[in-house]
Amino acid sequence: MDFMLLLLVMLLRQEVAALKLLHINVPAYTLRGRSALLECRYDRERDRLYGITWYKDHEVFYKYVLRDKNPHVYDVSGVKVDKSHSDDQKVTLQDANLHASGVYKCEVNGEGPSFNTVSAEARMEVIALPQERPMITGEEKVYASGDVLALNCTSGKSHPAAKLRWFVNDQQVKPDSEQLFEQHGLYSTISSLLLELEPGHLASDKINVRCEATVESAHKLDNPFVDIRTTEVFGKPT
Questions:
Q1: What letter does residue 57 receive in the DSSP assignment?
Q2: What is the pLDDT of residues 126-146, one digit of tens each?
Q3: How far apart are CA 99 and CA 79, in angstroms?
Q4: What is the pTM of this model?
Q5: Domain annotation for the chain: domains and CATH numbers
Q6: Which of 60, 76, 171, 194 registers the highest number of CB atoms within 10 A of its CB?
Q7: Helix %, strand %, coil % for the chain, to 5?
Q8: How many Å apart are CA 181 and CA 161, to the nearest integer?
Q9: Cα–Cα–Cα angle for 151, 154, 160, nearest 5°?
């Protein structure tokens, strides 16, 4: 057989039998305080496997060397590894905080003589839900046509920030202004409503004002996380 042809066949055989990363599973989002399971499934074929390394935003936080069969954990901001539930194909993160959001990469390394390396990465977002419903302030007990409905709606602290929407008698109305406040990575939104009441607003025996706060995952996902909370007040027409 021609030498070049023989070399090509050998290279193709090596490629077919090379280390393969089957899939990586990183949850698109998790809630603050919850655990998260990261999976890295591989097929070493005929390769001799050296170990697996996990990175968060390019920093090593977990390494599993097969000959040691003992995971090594490194300090990285926001990452807390549960070693008792981690091995060469999975890593369990516990008590996720906001700093745990980021890009996670799994790298699988083969031993010599091939020293093949395969890797894949995915993003995870940590979401902090508000502890309370949105709060409406400034309401009066009685309204008449021509009065100005002047209300504020304040969302509970969350990450990412809640989006607020106003409804008067089940009809959405635009806010007059909106402010965003941040403390320790948590956001609170204050939306102000200034609406001059018309006879149509007072057609029934009550005025229903509702504020809706929506917290959703910041990144576009096929199955996004959405949490909706509402609060409402009632005013009595004169």
A1: T
A2: 999 999 999 999 987 788 888
A3: 8
A4: 0.82
A5: 16-127 (2.60.40.10), 135-237 (2.60.40.10)
A6: 76
A7: 10, 55, 35
A8: 9
A9: 145
